[in-house]
Amino acid sequence: MVKLIDNKLVFGMLPKRQEDSNKATFGRILNVAGSKSYIGAAFLSSISALKVGAGYLSLACPSEIVPVISSMAPELTFIHLNSDANGSISADNTIENIYSYNVVSMGCGLTASDEVKKFVFYILNNLNKSQKVVIDADGINVLANHKGEISLKNTVITPHPKELSRLLNVSVEEIIENREKYARITSQTYECITVLKGHNSIVTNGEKIFINQSGSSALAKAGTGDVLTGIIAGLLAQKLSPLDAAIIGTYLHGLAGDIAAADLTKYSVLASDVIDYLPFALKMVLAEE
Questions:
Q1: What is residue 10's three-state secondary structure?
Q2: What is the mean pLDDT of the chain?
Q3: Per residue in 10-21, is it b (16+ CB within 10 Å) or e — as a string?
Q4: Alpha-carbon torsion 104, 226, 54, 65, what sign?
């Protein structure tokens, strides 16, 4: 079954906002992201989760980049981690109270160092079955190195074709020519929700396929994938299923980019602009009411 993701579909799936609530009502996220070379990825993937409605987020990142990010986003809390000689998270870290988070997102700006791979593997193997997970970028590379060793139940992965080629050992060209097929195979093989990024991004659970109708070349810019990871994590925190969060998140991400492009042109949209225009995307979807 193939369905199109549009305004009407997403309106009926948005999480409800109860008035008698507090920050815990809308979920707690642990975001493992960032390095000395990719500070922006940690910021973008964190603040976008809050912008879409999550109640609380802790960013686990190298201590040396905390002052920079905290000055950009006072809404965040931090878990200070040790780093290796290159400013990436080192393997000797642990995270206390990891089970207090209902969502864990990871991968944005981590780098592909051996130390990072060990740490991500440690995190993924220490989660419980009820925690929902979003894995992007360098986190996906860890999956490629540990095929069959990590349970991906309740997990959304957000690969672009090159990352997917590493997971499936299939050429990028073959994936681009058969996007629906390989997105479905990925979800069936890894028992996860797959968001295969690109023009008309594909979301699938291995059975149902959803093709996104929002987005344009305005999103072909560094950092927009980090924003998508944060949006999906923020929706998961609000008790949506991984499939529903992936569908809504992919659409809102593209729609925010479209609205930004209408104001700024497709040439000039930055990843941070997508975050700034998320409220307008939400208002447009809510207008279906």
A1: helix
A2: 95
A3: beebbbeeeeee
A4: positive
Tell me the mean pLDDT in the region 21-37: 95
DSSP 14: S
pTM score, whole prediction = 0.97
Which residue ranges form the domains of the chain, and what is each CATH number?
2-13+26-286 (3.40.1190.20)
* Residues across the chain: 289
Tokens for 271? 């990843």
Nearest to 57 by CA among 36, 28, 81: 28
Task: Measure CA of the first residue to CA of the last residue in the chain; give whole Å.
Answer: 27
Q: Are 142 and 171 in contact (CB under 8 A)?
A: no
Q: What are the residue ranges of helices labelled H in the chain?
A: 7-11, 39-51, 66-72, 114-124, 138-145, 161-168, 172-177, 179-190, 224-237, 242-264, 271-276, 278-286
- The pLDDT score that the predictor gives to residue 144 is 83
Decide: 32 and 118 in contact? Cβ < 8 Å: no
Angle of helix 242-264 relative to helix 224-237, nearest 10 degrees, comes to: 140
